[in-house]
Design goal:
With 394 residues, this protein is an alpha+beta fold. The protein has one domain: Endonuclease/exonuclease/phosphatase (Deoxyribonuclease I, Chain A). The chain is built from eleven helices and 16 strands. A seven-stranded mixed sheet has the order 1-8-9-10-11-13-12, with helices on one face. Helix 3 crosses helix 4 and helix 6 (230-244) runs parallel beside helix 7. It is globular and about 55 Å long. It starts with a helix and ends with a helix. GO terms for molecular function: 5'-tyrosyl-DNA phosphodiesterase activity; metal ion binding; nuclease activity; single-stranded DNA binding. Its main location: nucleus. InterPro entries: Endo/exonu/phosph_ase_sf (IPR036691), Endo/exonuclease/phosphatase (IPR005135), TDP2-like (IPR051547).
């Protein structure tokens, strides 16, 4: 009887093997196998997102048309890789009249007033994250001379937006940045065809002979609108956080229209272990920070109070830091006197931590050290006037 009882029990090695197969199988089938993080509980009923590769295009003056980005781009020396990138996010409002003309005016404003390139010259390394670009406005964007000369564009056409979408997000990346990869994530269950455009770019980490090329992730997103989309926003923000917490990239930041109109929206940011860049602005310079509600033209919008709908969210504790954002485009109108958008834009910078050379490896390996270095940098900025000096230019 004793022998029978022993044989009836599974052998310990067999149990261990079965557990290993289950774990490996689950990791291979899980869409975020490489993005798993602790203390991030998924929604009760997570919906399946659609992830597709996203090519980028550039204008060729020899062929006089937009062409696909080079499959083997020109090699950049390590010392040429940037360690700081300017960022702009702006919802350009697809719903009002003359969307192409308003977008053209917004691009002129960015060229001349924000990036200080009145002659159409190359800006400092930067990325422009646009939301609500209408079908009709996409052609106007590709016709803008400054965009043609100095930027890569993702996606190549509105055909890369989800089926049925009449508007979508567009990311512009200056040509002095190497694009490593592009992805389009269509949020599962979105009734408004909302997406996240993921662009991994190469940056330089370190200095001198120890400088390395690493990938920095920039995400352009537009989350579900209105009170009815609160549940969808929670799931979309969870998906967004999974991509930002991918530790295969040296840092990650998301900019866009987060539609944060409910108290739960702020809770979900913290629950997903993300940080709102606005919280890093010194308290004496912070102000109200609302980006929507002052230039609206729809009568139905008067029932909603102005709010800070547009944000930069980032993964704290990485080797790159993001400074506090500032508002752009307030009161901007076209030549016909129309508001360019019902949203203000936001400008910001992401850059490598200012740490000593001997601490770089420590910061990369121990996120809490990077967070402490970041906190010290914020304290220094709060005590001086450097924040005010940055507000005019990305």
């Amino acid at each position: 009887m004793r022998i029978r009882r022993r044989l009836s029990r599974p052998h310990p090695v067999l149990l261990w093997t079965k557990r290993l197969i289950r774990r490996v199988g689950a990791a291979c089938l899980h869409p975020f196998a490489s993005l798993r993080t602790r203390n991030m509980s998924p929604p009760q009923n997570p919906l399946q997102d659609t992830v597709v590769p996203l090519p980028y295009i550039r204008y060729s003056y020899t062929q006089r048309c937009w062409t696909n980005g080079p499959s083997k781009p020109k090699q950049l020396r390590i010392e040429e890789l940037p360690n700081h990138i300017g960022l702009v996010t702006w919802n350009v409002d697809m719903s009002w009249s003359d969307a192409p003309g308003r977008l053209w005016c917004a691009l002129n404003f960015l060229q001349g007033e924000i990036f200080k390139c009145p002659e159409g010259t190359m800006p400092r390394p930067c990325a422009v994250l646009l939301q609500e670009v209408a079908h009709a406005a996409f052609a106007a964007l590709l016709a803008h001379p400054w965009v043609c000369a100095q930027f890569y564009v993702l996606p190549p056409s509105p055909g890369f937006w989800p089926p049925g979408a009449t508007y979508g997000a567009v990311t512009l990346v200056s040509r002095n940045i190497r694009v490593a990869r592009g992805l389009s994530v269509a949020y599962g269950g979105s009734r408004m065809q909302r997406t996240a455009l993921i662009t991994d770019v190469l940056v330089g980490v370190g200095a001198g002979p120890t400088k390395q090329a690493r990938a920095l992730r920039i995400v352009n997103t537009h989350l579900e609108s209105l009170e009815a989309g609160t549940e969808q926003r929670a799931q979309q923000l969870w998906t967004l956080a999974r991509w930002l917490h991918d530790h295969q990239v040296v840092g990650a930041v998301a900019g866009g229209d987060m539609n944060a109109i409910a108290p739960a929206d702020e809770t979900h940011v913290r629950r997903n272990r993300l940080r709102d860049a606005w919280d890093d602005v010194p308290a004496r310079s912070r102000g109200y920070g609302a980006t929507w509600g002052f230039q609206s033209r729809r009568k139905t919008d008067v029932q909603h109070a102005p709010g800070r709908l547009d944000k930069f969210l980032y993964r704290p504790g990485s080797a790159f830091e993001i400074s506090g954002p500032w508002i752009i485009g307030q009161g901007l109108k076209t030549a016909d006197g129309e508001w360019v958008s019902d949203h203000y834009g936001l400008g910001d910078r992401v850059r490598e931590h200012e740490v000593q050379e001997g601490q770089r490896a420590l910061v990369a390996e121990q996120p809490h050290v990077a967070h402490e270095a970041y906190a010290r940098g914020q304290q220094r900025r709060a005590g001086g006037g450097r924040y005010g000096e940055k507000r005019g230019r990305v």
